[in-house]
Design brief:
Layout (H helix, E strand, L loop, with lengths): L4 E2 L8 E7 L4 H14 L4 E4 L1 H6 L1 H9 L3 E4 L12 H11 L7 E2 L11 H7 L2 E3 L3 E2 L9 H11 L5 E5 L5 H17 L3 E3 L4
Parallel strand pairs: 1-6, 2-3, 2-8, 2-9, 3-4, 5-6, 7-8
Helix pairs in contact: 6-7
């Protein structure tokens, strides 16, 4: 349905791509950056423009630490609940605060008929093939870890959230996932244009 989007990397390499949505926010994004420093890993952060605007120091830190960043719209507007004009305006509004050309649609919502315009304004549209579901408060932290470990395979793009809503589950599942996957021989790379 979306042939011009990236869902997964090369399946013949034992490489994974760690991504985070919805930051940057002070406590959660700072904690994730410190954890990644401990593991000497780089990741890709799909940032909400409003958060990037309000936390410019965190955006600067993400980039200075060598992580990549992508546009996740200014107000995290879902495509299915706003007009086409509002959707594209919200993406453009985020651009001054989020350098580069990576884009991930908020809530993963994307109309096929938006693809042509997105491809003209974004260098790469990135989805995922492993959703941790750390944002879902109906799941336990162990459920979130199991989601990651059960579905990860060569080339997977893993999705966590550096947000208050996901904090309790992400705080447990992220380091546990990294420990397990590194022991399995996976390497991690950030996404780049």
């Amino acid at each position: 349905m979306f042939p011009h989007t990236l869902w997964r990397g090369k399946s013949d390499e034992k490489t994974l791509y760690l991504t985070f949505d919805d930051g940057p926010v002070e406590k959660e994004t700072s904690w994730v950056m410190n954890l990644l420093d401990e593991y000497q890993l780089k990741a890709t952060f799909f940032c909400v423009g409003e958060n990037a605007d309000n936390n410019a120091h965190l955006m600067k830190e993400l980039l200075s630490k060598g992580h990549s960043v992508g546009n996740h719209a200014y107000n995290h507007l879902p495509a299915w609940k706003c007009s086409r004009k509002a959707y594209f305006s919200n993406i453009e509004k985020a651009k001054p605060f989020i350098p580069g050309g990576l884009f991930r649609p908020p809530h993963g919502q994307l109309y096929p008929w938006y693809m042509k315009e997105l491809k003209q304004t974004q260098k790469s549209i990135v989805m995922w093939d492993v959703l941790s579901m750390d944002y879902d408060n109906r799941l336990s932290k162990h459920d979130v870890l199991n989601n990651v470990l059960q579905y990860t395979r060569n080339g997977s793009i893993l999705l966590f959230h550096d947000s208050k809503k996901a904090w309790e589950r992400m705080h447990y599942a992220l380091p546990a996932s990294l420990d397990h996957l590194l022991k399995e021989g996976y390497t991690f790379k950030k996404l780049e244009m």
